[in-house]
Amino acid sequence: MRDQLKLSIACALCFAIALVALPLLNYFQPEFMAQRVFGFTLTWLILGVLFFPFVWIISFVFIQRSIALENAEAKAAQDGQRK
Amino acid sequence: MSPLLAFLAAETAPKQVDPWIAFFSLITVVVTVGMGFWTAGKSKSAGDFFVAGRSVSVGWNASAISGEYLSAASFMGVAGMVMATGYDALWYPVCYACGYLFLLLFIAGPLRRFGAYTIPDFAEGRYDSPVFRKIAVCFVLFIGFFYTMPQMKGAGTTLAYIFPGLPYWAGVVVVGAVITLNVSLGGMKGITLVQAFQYWLKVFAITLPIFILASVVGHYQQHLAGNKTAQEAAATILPGIERKALPAKAPKDEAWIAPFGKLTTKAVDASIAAATTPEAKASLEAVKKPYSLLYTYSLIIALVCGTAGLPHILVRFYTNPDGVAAKRTTMWVMILIGVFYVFPPVYGVIGRSLTPELYDAVGAKGTDKVVLELPTLLAGRDHALLGSILSGITCAGAFAAFMSTFSGLLVSMSSALAHDIYGRMLRPDSSPEQRLKAFKWSALIVGLVAVGLGSQVEALEINFMVGQAFAIAAASYFPLLFMSVWWRGMTMRGAATGMLVGGLSALASISLTSISDVAVAKAKKLADAAELAAYWADHPLAKAIADYWVAHPLARILCEQPAIWAVALSIGLMVIVSKATASSIPTDIRMKMLVLHAPEALGLKQEYIKEHEGLGGH
Lengths: 83, 618
Fold this sequence. Notes:
The complex is a heterodimer. By secondary structure, chain A is mainly alpha-helical. Chain A is built from three helices and two strands. A two-stranded antiparallel ribbon of chain A has the order 1-2. The two termini of chain A are 23 Å apart. The model of chain A has no long low-confidence stretch (mean pLDDT 82). Chain B is mainly alpha-helical.
């Protein structure tokens, strides 16, 4: 449970940093965020398009690790019973 | 010029019912009812009705959750809001999708492992407290009805759009009747299939028209490039991209495309307009941007935490076979809704170039209509049939949107009535058959109340009402679930205090803003000065609040978007009160935590509500 919570918090931090940073970048670096990338402004491209794949990557990594942790925990408990 | 003229002529002529639009909408309704009857035969036990027999596979469940989640606000509201306010509105789809990440990281797996039927079950089971179940039931019904009203409003306005001349309440009654029938026929198991179908219909209905439209009138980024930023000297209108002149009411390009636009600055803008001295104006201009940053953060918190606290979404996790499946489901939901949410802003951006006349109308006739209106542009470009068919498809998608969300809400509220109030409080010794009957009656009662409430809210905005439901959920259910799952020191008193104070204070502050906003909107329509004075004299409270907002824009922002303080208040109270009442921590807390967090393979799993109770099994 402790490892699971650590994993959850680590993933949540990745996500929270992005959510906190984007408005701050918009606030302090408006010219940089307004430059054109393929017709989008940089900030529009990030928020309107790239944010979704970013969240998918976090959730994919979380699922893989979380299920591996559960399996390891179950295995450790069963080994413990056998001894 | 001729296509434009033809389009304008079509707009001004008395509108006929488009047979294709009617056809596709009818198909959606017929298929929904048909699937309801088809699944009715398969739903037999109480478990089927409340949690779909806990056997919904990951693929079906992910489609069904996504179908339930993409409501009228997502389908029509987001596009309209992006068109109306620009960049800031992009936070809505992003946070609607990302809120699921919070669910996945902290709540999905443990909540399923607990094995309850409803959130009130969890509340009671975690704290061994029947009183807490009652409080939780009230919140389920409360948030549920708040979230039902905008769905009903969407249904009413869309039907009135398709069949001009039909009264607003007709759509409310039609959608209410269809879904109530479906839910009482098949319960959770029945609507799972329907909602999964409706998700794919919605994705189809939002993507196909925009791909075809973009290939004719130009792509997303080409239209976005036509809006000049503050740094650019002039807009780059690419060859072949049409851009109509914006009406005076539309926000200017620089404000629309950049962050901190109309949505987040309107409170300060109102104060600046009312300021009398240049010094006051200058000092307000100086705080405009910091305040809109604060607004942005509060909005993000409300949407992310609110998603993780909507009871009709949470109840779906109980339909997974186990905790691992619950986690996998959430990941697929995120992918499915993420794919969907890329597209509504495209409608908003292209709509700004091609249908700017929508800026002049308000509410349902204004920018909210852009998703339905854009495909008809093709009709003016020598693709008359294609335009009608695509418009029909988007209308069908809109129908699927209110129906699937309303069916999810109806199931969660009927479960609260039938399982928590009837089965646990009024008649604890009732048989599963009686509870099943109670479920059907509850669906009917909730459906009637929802139709009644829905027919009263024509004047309110869809996205605004949804925002209210999110803020209340963020300050009540999210802290409850998050803290109950991860902190063993929580007590019932702590949980109840935090949830009640957080939820009620969010509700109170939002109500304050809506009382004055409704009054101000009405007052704006009165041209005559004497009438205006008389109107305000009749509404002294609204006048006092409205004046207070103008004098204190910061207070206005914090009341309109209360999540930033209400969530913190709720969690803070939970910690303080739990510490003070630490002696009442449930004695078997270690076991409870194990049940919540241990992998199923350990064999510790106990369903809080046993499957097929007394039914003799299948």
